[in-house]
Amino acid sequence: MTGIVHTILVLLILIGLNEAVRKSKWIAVAFYVAVPIALTPLFIANATAPGSSVNSWFDWVKLYSVLFACVWYTGLNYTSLGNRNWAKFVAMAILAINIGEAVARDMELFFLGDQIGMFAPEQIVGGIKGNGQYQHYHLMNAVAGVLSIITLSGWNAMRVEGDRARDFVWPDLRVLWIIAYDVWNFAYIYNCVPWHAAFGFVVLSACTIPSLLIKKGTWLQARAYTLAGWMMYVMAATTFIDAPGNYVALPYNPIALYAVSGLSLLLNAWFAVLHFGRVAKKTGRQFGDAVYAE
Fold first, then answer.
1. What's the pLDDT score for residue 113?
2. The predicted structure's pLDDT at residue 80
3. What's the chain's Rg over C-alpha atoms?
């Protein structure tokens, strides 16, 4: 019961965080600049503790890359950067790099697996098991991540909207792409950090729900704001989050792993076929121009 309540609270708090920071640049600056600086000693202590689950390169790269994304998107909302195409390209590139980090981690676990000493509470996670067999769900999901990157489009059509709530809107980011991304990211978490899989689902929901129901087109900024909040929480409260009973443990077996990664690959491949079919029909389109939005 504690794990269920904890998971629901994470969802509600992250949705509330997104609403707060999109309405105030000072809250955004305080939360994504001042707070992580103040918490850095705690992050280091948790990462270097014996048996830590946040001791990989990925945890640190993910934390600070998504914090940079929050600062960049806030700058786009409140400065003249929001009118510059090169700055919009950087906004898209941040997302692509963020996906690429997870692709690299999936591939690392596919090739090295247990050899890199990646341990989950009560179980080993990795590509190569004790019998030396590769776990191809890592490879399947890595390919899905690459497809997610190459189907990004229309960053030149990004724009800032709103008055008090300053929103950075990406009209060309389709709902199907978001769904395919969510499944891919959930598959990554399930493959590599399975004890956080339920948390991963609600963290993804915390950005998808507002971007579909509160303000359409705002998925990019919502993803950065909510993911950064989650990563700071993970790095600061690792022991509490990983304690038995404080997380919802989903079934973990090869059938489920291949099913989730297979769905991830299928959805991203499906969107890629639709996307490049539409691109082929857009004559005169320049690099970065919209494929879907007018």
1. 63
2. 87
3. 19
Looking only at Cα atoms, what is the longest distance across the chain?
59
Please give the Cα distance from 273 to 262 (Å, whole number): 16
pLDDT of residue 132: 42
**Domain ranges for the chain:** 2-278
Please tell me the pTM assigned to this model.
0.90
DSSP 117-169: --EETTEE-SSS-TT----THHHHHHHHHHHHHHT---GGG-EEE-SSS-EEE
Collect the ranges in the chain with pLDDT lower than 70: 1, 113-134, 163-164, 284, 294
Q: What is the pLDDT of residue 1?
A: 66
pLDDT for res 174: 92
